[in-house]
Amino acid sequence: MPASSYRFCRSPDCKVVYFSETEGLTFTEFDLREWVYQKHPEDERVFVCYCYQHTTASIREELLTTGETTIIEKITAGTKAKTCACDLRNPQGTCCLGNVKAVVNKIKEGTSQEKR
Prior knowledge:
Layout: E1 6-8, E2 16-20, E3 26-28, E4 47-49, E5 54-55, H1 56-66, H2 71-80, H3 86-89, H4 97-115
Helix pairs in contact: 1-4
């Protein structure tokens, strides 16, 4: 990538993932190795956690199988052990924990509503 300061576009309605305000450059998902969770929040195959390769589907499967998830604890432990590289692997350039927690809560919410 050309040296420039890039910003991340999280909007699912926009094809651009990264853009440079100064250079006028843009990059779409087709320029990247992975699909971007923020662009496809309903696609259960897209990584929510890029360092440890968790998808919404894998989180849902663990929750349905065991009733709980250990993913948040594993990511937290990995972050403390410095075995993750969110700034490099996660397209948003920051830790995925907020996204993972939101997915876990959404799945738990949906599961509890299904039981009613």
